[in-house]
Amino acid sequence: MMQGKSFCRDEHFENLLVFSQEAKFDLHGHTLVQDGHLVIQDKSTIISVEVARTFVNDLALQKEKVNILIPGADIKNVIGEGDDIIQTHVESGNITAYLSSIIHPDRRVFTFGVTPQSYERLESKMEQMSAHNVDLLEEHFLDAVPNDERFKKVKIIVINVPCSKSGIVNPVDFILQEGVSASIKDLAQGTLDNSKIRGLAFQHLGILKHAMKFPYLQGIIYMTRSIHEYENYDVVKKALEETREESAKQGSFEVIQALPNVANRLKQVVRPSYDPSDEQAMYKVDGKYIRMEPSSFMNGGFVALLKKQKVVESAHDVLERAAKKGLMKPAKTKTPRAQSGKTKRLEHAHKPRPTPSLPMAKLSITEKPAVVISDSELDTDVKNPPRKSSTKTKSWHGSDENVSEVKEKGIKAKKSNERKFKF
């Protein structure tokens, strides 16, 4: 425990200084604070911005890997262009200026909820903190169009909803540190009933679901200063369930571990969302959320990091997307041709023949078979032509002689030939 007007470096974050109770009241009038070199904030607020810093660093590592694996590749065609950030509610501007410091000066921070009365004050504060890449928008976040040309480079949305602030330990310190316009009664713990808390949770759900509609988004950081489950776990769980079907084509969101490198070291001051006695809320067991309990060291709150998952595209979708970007020619669709007469005939030829319905009649031979004669018989016919006039009936081969007479002549000729050539 520090005594006197002393301070030390925080054990978890290098850019955070911890001051003693006696010294912190003298800081508000210090020149370092007035000039914007030091910003008085609670550690619970720092944790949410550090989650954003880690996510920005992960995006930078992805770009380096793409340059190594695909030399000369256009980064914007692979993982998108820019690293802009949207903050849904500007509040005092402290978180806005902090977000401005974690990204490149060429990137932008769009913050919503600026009123005409607070515009000049916030503009002066951004100038004092050298946050020159901040756009103060006098419109509500729910009125923002996701496909707006201004937000095509936005990769992260920080949702710091105006919650019940039930995790605030000391309302006076909170008003002095954050510079918010709130009454002590509104910040006192236990002053809101369940109906009002549920009403706030319904508003948070609408804001979170609207943030998921931004097409080029990579991550969402949802933070509250509340300790009620209605505003924390239930909102995230409900949003993921209701947008699962709608975000199937663009990519669904999934809760991932926030601050993985320092999560174990934060256990003494924060508690992961794990309650073994709560059997009905099993989605808390994974410990991916960060739940901060109110203590003398810091205010209570809740932080969740939602990362957009990659869509598994089919080969047809990949080719179609490449054709739209001009990387290849669009595929030609073949139109069916009309069938020609030849094709129809061929198709008809392959059809099976119809089977007869009636049985075929059996064929029977009623006439006697024709008599076959030899070559010698034909020679005899040539030597002895038929007579001119004959009353005999012609044989089956047109001769006037009977078959028996022809046979007798053939036998006699054969015997005479045998006698002539006898040795």
In short:
One of its GO terms (molecular function) is methyltransferase activity. The protein is an alpha/beta fold and 423 residues long.
Task: Write up this protein.
- The chain is an alpha/beta fold and 423 residues long.
- The chain folds into two domains: 38 residues, no CATH class; 261 residues, Vaccinia Virus protein VP39 (Rossmann fold, 3-Layer(aba) Sandwich), CATH 3.40.50.150.
- It is 35% helix and 11% strand.
- The chain has 14 helices and eleven strands.
- The strands form two sheets. Strands 3, 4, 5, 6, 7, 8, 9, 10 and 11 form a nine-stranded mixed β-sheet that branches. Strands 1-2 form a two-stranded antiparallel sheet.
- Strand 3, helix 5 and strand 4 form a beta-alpha-beta unit.
- Helix 9 packs across helix 10 and helix 13 packs across helix 14.
- It is elongated.
- About 5% of the residues have low confidence.
Instruction: Compute the separation of the termini in Å.
Output: 154 Å
What are the segments in which pLDDT stays under 50 over at least 5 consecutive residues? 274-286, 389-396
Mean pLDDT: 76
State the CATH topology of the largest domain.
Rossmann fold
What is the helix fraction of residues, given as a range?
A: 25-40%
Largest sheet: 9 strands, mixed
Keywords: Methyltransferase, RNA-binding, S-adenosyl-L-methionine, Transferase
Biased composition (Basic and acidic residues): 397-423
Region (Disordered): 326-360, 372-423
Biased composition (Basic residues): 326-335, 342-353, 385-395
